[in-house]
Amino acid sequence: MNTEKLHIIPHQHQIQSEDRAELMGHKGMVIWFVGLSGSGKSTLASELERRLYEQGRHTYILDGDNIRSGLNSDLDFSDQSRVENIRRISEVAKLMADAGLIVLTAFITPFEEERQKVKNLIGAENYFEIFVNCPIEECEKRDVKGLYAKARRGEISNFTGISSPFEEPTNPDLKIPSHKMTVEEGVELILNKLKERL
Questions:
Q1: Which of 12, 101, 121, 198 is the most buried (most CB within 10 A)?
Q2: How far is Cα 160 from Cα 166, in angstroms, rounded to an integer?
Q3: What is the chain's mean pLDDT, rounded?
């Protein structure tokens, strides 16, 4: 046990999350998009943010490439680093939600155990998981970044769906079959489901 951690005592500040929610006009929460590369997570998150912004909601998007080029630039794509990647993101998302923001995250998040840890950390009442369910064949057809082709050639190791597993969410709040509907239809589905949560 790290005894130094025993001396860390969080300060209780005067302004709490309830106060910030009253100021914002809505409570903070985390909307976590899960799915394979190319499934449409970032596209859906971006359009959902636009719609929420139009409603006067305070939002912020965290997505894979942006986080890995900054906060998590020291991590590779091994299973251990992927776990740490998600741990750091969930801690940041929790803080941002506590600040009153609606945080939209777009991360593959391939392991069920890690998704459960995220939910437990953030709190089920503030967490909304969306599984962007798109077959890998369709994701490969899209392959907007050319990543699947590189993974098939062995140029990228530990690539989810090819050389690293993706465990489908067992109990997401919502499934979006992005290969069967438009982005607008997907966002409408999300907004309808979120009505009682926002």
A1: 101
A2: 6
A3: 89
Phi, psi dihedral angles at 160 (to 5 degrees): -60, 130
Among all chains, which residue has been given the structure tokens 């998981």?
129
pLDDT digits (tens, 9 = 90+) for 130-159: 999 999 999 999 987 899 999 999 999 889
More confident residue, 4 or 187: 187
pLDDT surpassing 60 at residue 1: no
Nearest to 162 by CA among 137, 192, 142: 137
Q: Count of CB atoms within 10 A of residue 167's CB? A: 14
H-state helical runs in the chain: 17-24, 41-54, 64-68, 79-98, 112-122, 136-142, 147-152, 183-194
Sequence letter at residue 19: D
Whole-number Å distance between alpha carbons of 118 and 90:
6
Question: What's the rounded Cα separation, in Å, for the pair 110 and 86?
Answer: 10
Q: Find out whether 23 and 67 touch, Cβ atoms under 8 Å.
A: no
Q: How many helices (H) and strands (E) does the chain have?
A: 8, 5
Of the two residues 143 and 25, the one the predictor is more confident about is 143
Which pair of structure tokens corresponds to residue 191? Answer: 């907004």
